[in-house]
Automatic annotation (TrEMBL):
PANTHER family (UniProt xref): FERRIC ENTEROBACTIN TRANSPORT PROTEIN FEPE, TYROSINE-PROTEIN KINASE
Region (Disordered): 1-57
Organism: Tateyamaria armeniaca
Protein name stated in the entry: Capsule biosynthesis protein
Coiled-coil residue windows: 281-329
Keyword Transmembrane helix in record: yes
């Protein structure tokens, strides 16, 4: 079988001289037809493979206008603010000293002896609301005014002239609103709602001034908490005093009514008079029984017309009349109250006694409540517990220069990145 002869291939110099021909050879009708037989040897197979395309030489990158724009924007947005901030902090910013203070509001829960015996409700309550009030008070204009009256905050925070440090120094000619705004910059307050602890940090250009301001803050906070306790105690004492006055007046009226009854009826205690009259009546009834027995014996042992029988009869009649008179006294009053049933007098007297006893019980309870309120007022139910007293700094830790520089660098880089992305997004859409 006859082998097909291999077709001559152009050499490398010819292909390199004619790159168009090497990249896209012109297809002839004969070559366009599919081959039905593959070359048998490896040399013919290699000859039929397409030659690799030689890449065009790369052009040298050139700096364009957008590159200059990015570099300039990076300098303006990121590098320049960082450099300016670092220059100001290490050249003009004055050293500041910190005084730390931490405290919490405590409420006394133990009751007094009078409360335990009388069952009076305690006046103290939870300290959570007091802590919230104190936290709001620490940032109030009232506290700033009181501390300023004690220490002259304008002098404390203007030790460094504002011309030397316009960022951290205070202008002494400012108003109370300006002082409040500067207070919020110099006083850092951290409130933990879970533990009810308040941490305060005071900054000043002198360590003694920082400690003095922190001590003034603690003193004024203590005074405010004591004022809250005084208001609560005054309200409780006022209520107890009013109740005691009402109970005392009611007791006086009950006693005066009982005195008027005794003066009107001339009876001190109707129950005692009733018992005495009942004793007389019982004695008369016993004598009447003896007289009747004696009369019956005389009738059985003597004849008719005996003078002893007539005497016994008169004795029985006299005793019976006396018994009727005593019974009449028990049914009717005497003297100025003639015609009034004695039982009604007893009922009126008992009603007056009940009113007096109720007034005495109410007065006793009101007096116990008043004594408990006074006992509570003698002790401090709410107080400020400072677990960290105002500290005196030995080294200036503020302003935190490196922290400020890093923050400015971070935000400047983020701003530059966002501006760059926005610029390229708008450029691609154009």
């Amino acid at each position: 079988m006859q082998q097909p002869s291999p077709q001559p291939q152009p050499d490398a110099e010819t292909q390199s001289a004619n790159p168009a021909t090497s990249r896209a050879p012109t297809a002839t009708p004969e070559t366009a037809k599919p081959q039905t037989a593959e070359p048998q040897n490896s040399e013919a197979r290699i000859a039929t493979l397409p030659l690799p395309v030689t890449p065009a030489p790369a052009h040298r990158a050139r700096t364009r206008g957008r590159h200059w724009f990015l570099a300039l924007s990076f300098l303006l947005v990121c590098a320049a603010p960082v450099a300016a901030t670092a220059y100001y902090l290490w050249t003009y910013a004055a050293d500041q000293y910190a005084s730390n203070l931490a405290f919490s509001v405590r409420s006394e829960e133990q009751g007094s002896a009078v409360e335990l015996l009388g069952g009076v409700t305690e006046l103290s309550g939870s300290s959570s609301a007091d802590t919230d009030i104190l936290f709001a008070y620490l940032t109030s204009q009232e506290l700033v005014s009181k501390v300023n009256d004690r220490l002259d905050l304008a002098r404390v925070w203007s030790r460094v002239p504002i011309t030397s440090d316009p960022v951290f120094a205070y202008d002494p000619t400012g108003t109370i609103e300006d002082l409040l705004a500067h207070w919020q910059r110099k006083i850092s307050i951290i409130y933990d709602s879970g533990t009810r602890l308040i941490d305060v940090r005071v900054l000043a250009f002198d360590p003694g001034d920082a400690q003095a301001v922190a001590q003034a803050v603690m003193d004024e906070s203590t005074a405010m908490i004591n004022a809250l306790s005084d208001i609560a105690r005054d309200d409780a004492i006022k209520y107890a005093r009013d109740e005691l006055a009402v109970s005392s007046g009611r007791l006086k009226e009950a006693r005066q009514a009982l005195t008027r009854f005794r003066n009107r009826t001339q009876i001190v205690d109707p129950s005692i008079d009733t018992q005495n009259q009942m004793g007389v009546l019982v004695t008369l009834q016993r004598q009447l029984a003896d007289a009747l027995i004696e009369f019956d014996l005389l009738q059985d042992t003597t004849r008719a017309g005996d003078p002893r029988i007539s005497q016994a009869t008169r004795r029985v009649d006299v005793i019976q009349k006396r018994i009727d008179a005593e019974r009449q006294k028990l049914g009717l009053g005497t003297g100025a109250e003639g015609g009034v049933v004695f039982a009604d007098l007893v009922g009126e007297y008992e009603g007056l006694i009940v009113d007096r006893e109720f007034a005495e019980a109410a007065y006793t309870s009101a007096l116990a409540t008043h004594d408990a309120a006074l006992a509570e007022a003698r002790r401090q139910s709410r107080y400020l517990a400072a677990h960290i007293r105002p500290t005196l700094a030995q080294q200036a830790e503020y302003p935190e220069r490196m922290k400020f520089v890093l923050l400015v660098a971070l935000f400047g880089f983020l701003a530059w990145t966002i501006l760059s992305l926005v610029y390229y997004s708008l450029r691609d859409r154009a």
